[in-house]
Write a structure and sequence with these properties.
HotDog_dom_sf; Thiol Ester Dehydrase, Chain A; hydrolase; alpha+beta; about 140 residues; six-stranded antiparallel β-sheet; 3 helices; Thioestr_dom; 6 strands
Length: about 140
């Protein structure tokens, strides 16, 4: 079942992130399904920490971007979603290639939403799992 309440596409999501941290980090939206959004981030000199691994904060930026977009595009008209809480469990380091993330809703309520974000490396191995709670507010 399609959960989006407003038009959503890769092009729309890319367009709203021009000149933001998302664009600066090289995050790319790659798929929008009926109940999920997928994006990826490169593992390179702009996104690594000193040990050569993808910076944990970059994984959280990817997670928050995906969860926030999911919440924003399934809010009822005249409402908006803002982040309340996010957590992340880093499972495996990535040293090259891309890390992709997929978000799906756990709960879509009138006043809160909870989104799960699962991240993996190019080999399909889990790198990070995250969950974000969003508050739904009147515009």
């Amino acid at each position: 079942m399609r959960i989006w309440t407003k038009p959503i596409s890769i092009e729309i999501l890319t367009g709203i992130h021009v000149d933001t941290a998302v664009q600066r980090l090289g995050i790319e939206f790659i798929e929008v399904g009926d109940d999920f959004i997928r994006a990826r981030v490169p593992v390179n000199g702009h996104t690594k920490q000193p040990y050569g691994l993808l910076h944990g904060g970059v994984s959280v930026v990817l997670a928050e971007t995906l969860g926030s977009c999911g919440a924003a595009y399934c809010c009822p008209e005249g409402q908006r979603a803002v982040g309340l809480d996010i957590n992340a469990n880093h499972l495996r380091g990535a040293t090259a290639g891309w890390v992709s993330g997929t978000t799906r809703p756990v709960h879509i309520g009138r006043s809160t939403q909870v989104w799960q974000i699962d991240m993996q490396d190019d080999q399909g191995r889990p790198t990070c799992v995250s969950r974000i709670t969003m508050a739904v507010l009147a515009a």
